[in-house]
Amino acid sequence: MGLVERTSSRCAGRAKAFKSPGAWHAAGFLAEADLSANAIERARRAAPAYIDLTSSNPTHQGLIFPVEMLRAAAEPYWFARRYEPDARGLLAAREAISRYYSGRTPALLVPPDQIVITASTSEAYGLLFTLLADPGDNFLAPNVAYPLFEHLAAAHHVTLRSYQLDESCGWQIDEATLLRAADARTRGVLIVSPHNPTGMIVQQPIAALERLGLPVICDEVFAEFTYRAPHTPPLAALHPALPVFTLNGISKMFALPDLKLGWIAMNVPAASAFGARLEILNDIYLGANSLTQAMLPALFEHGLAFTAAMRQRIRASLDAALAVLKGCPALQVRPPDGGYYLFPRVMCQDDEEALVLKLLERGVLVHPGFFYGCEDGTHIMISCLSAPEVLVRGLELIVETLTT
Ligand SMILES: Cc1ncc(COP(=O)(O)O)c(C=O)c1O
Does any ligand 1 atom lie closer than 6 A to the CB of residue 143? Predict the structure, then answer.
C-alpha cells in the first residue's frame, strides 16, 4: 500500500491539528492519523480482477532499462571498490549531472560543486525542509499535488500552505493565491514542473515568485517527458536571481526507482546562501549509495536513448488515450504539457469516491481527484504509463461506464 492509498478521506488535511500530547504514544509522526486503508483501497483488495490505470511504477509497465547497459555501468565499480564518501556526492556523478543541465533547453550552468547527490528526490525534499525551516515554519505548495508533500512536511515538523492551480488556465499557478498564502513563517515555495498529476509545465517566469523573494524548490522529475510543450525550461533558468533548488533523479528519468539516486542542483544564489550548510546536512546521512553514483556517468552517456524511447511510448499512449476519451462528453480532458498523467474533470458526477468504486466494479481502477487534494469538482487520475493495449481497454471501460 502506497501513500496514495492511505489518503483516507476527502478531508485529509494538509496541516494536521495534533491534540495536546498527554502521553508518549500520542506524539510523533502520524501519531494521531488514521492509518487504515481507505474505501477504494479496501474495494481494490477485494476486487477479483481489474485493469490498473494508476501505476507510476515503470518496472511494472514493461519499461525496463536495458540490463546490459546496467551491467556495463556497474562493472568498473567492483574492481576499484573503496569507500571514499564525498559530502556532496561522487565528483564524476556530479560532473555528469552538470553536463546534463548544460544540455537542457534553455541550458543551465550548474557547476559540480553546486550539486548535492541524495538517495532520492523525496530525501532531497526532506533535507531542504530541514535546511530552510525551523519547526512550525511553512512552505507554499500547490493545492493539487501528488500526496508526498504532506507526509514529508509532517516528518520535518513544518506545515504547508496552499496556493491554487487554475484549471481554467491549464492548471497554471494562480499568482494572487501564491502571494496571499505567504506569511511571516514561510520559508520557501514548492513547484512541480511538469506537475503531477495535472501535467502543467511552468514555461514563463512567475512575477509573484520574484515579489515573494523566497527560496524555490522545483521538482522536475518529469522534465524529460514533455507532451504538448516543446521542452521543460529549468525553473532556475527562468528565475536566475532567486535561490532555486532543482530536484531530479533517476527514478523517472531512467525508470530506475529501485537504484535510489536523486539530486539537488543549486543555482548561484542558492549555493552561496545555503550550499555549505546543505553539504553538512547531506554528510550526516550520505544516503546515496556509492554503486549507483559510480554508474551515473554511464547512465547519462548511454541511457538517454532509452529515456527518448520511453518518451515516445508515453506520447503514443497519451495520443491513444486522448483519442478514446474525446468520444466521451462526460469528460473534460486537457492534453498535458508534460508528465504521464491525465487528470480529466468528470461532468455531472458529484461523488468521486462512488464514481471510482463504480469504475472498479466495471473492471478499471483510477484514482479520485481527492487523493491529490483536488476538492473543486470531480476528477479522475489516469496514468498513461500503463502498457498501451491495457490503457486503451481500460479507457474504453471508463467511456462505456460514463455514457451508460
Ligand atoms: C512529483 C514527484 N516528485 C518526486 C517523486 C519521488 O521521486 P523519487 O523516487 O526520486 O523519490 C514522485 C514520485 O512519484 C513524484 O511524483
Answer: no
**Spatial contact of 244 and 216, defined as CB atoms under 8 Å apart:** yes
Residue 12: band (very low, low, confident or very high) from pLDDT cuts 50, 70, 90: very low
Residues whose CB is less than 8 angstroms from the CB of residue 334 and which lie 6 or more positions away in sequence, other chains included: 170, 171, 199, 343, 344
The closest-lying atom of ligand 1 relative to the alpha carbon of residue 122 is 11
Comparing C-alpha atoms, which of 255, 140, 240, 252 is closest to residue 194? Answer: 252
* Structure letter (DSSP) for residue 57: -
Alpha-carbon separation of residue 263 from 140, 143, 250 (angstroms)? 21, 25, 9
For the Cβ of 262 lying below 6 angstroms from any atom of ligand 1, the answer is yes
pLDDT of 99-147, one tens digit each? Answer: 999 999 999 999 999 999 999 999 999 999 999 999 999 999 999 999 8
Predicted model pTM: 0.94
Ligand 1 atom 1 nearest Cα: 196
Q: What is the pLDDT of residues 243-261, one digit of tens each?
A: 999 999 999 999 999 999 9
Q: Is the beta carbon of 225 within 6 A of some atom in ligand 1?
A: no
Determine the distance separating the centroid of ligand 1 and the alpha carbon of 249, expressed in angstroms: 8
CA distance 160 to 136: 10
* 146 Cα nearest atom in ligand 1: 16
Distance 122 CA to ligand 1 centre (A): 6
198 CA to centre of ligand 1 in angstroms: 15
Question: Distance (Å, rounded) from C-alpha 322 to C-alpha 91?
Answer: 43
CA of 196 to the centre of ligand 1 (A): 9
CATH architecture of structural domain 68-302: 3-Layer(aba) Sandwich (3.40)
What CATH architecture is 32-64+305-403? Alpha-Beta Complex (3.90)
Cα–ligand 1 centroid distance for 23 (angstroms)? 34
According to DSSP, residue 19 is labeled: P
Q: Please state the atom number of ligand 1 nearest to the C-alpha of residue 195.
A: 1
Bridge partners (DSSP) of residue 342 are 382
Average pLDDT over residues 256-270: 98
- Strands 165-166 and 172-173 come out as antiparallel
Evaluate whether 306 touches 65 at the Cβ level (below 8 Å): yes
Domain range annotation of the chain? 32-64+305-403, 68-302
Closest of 142, 160, 270 to residue 216, by C-alpha: 270
Cα of 302 vs its chain's centroid, Å: 24
Euclidean distance between CA atoms 293 and 116, whole angstroms: 11
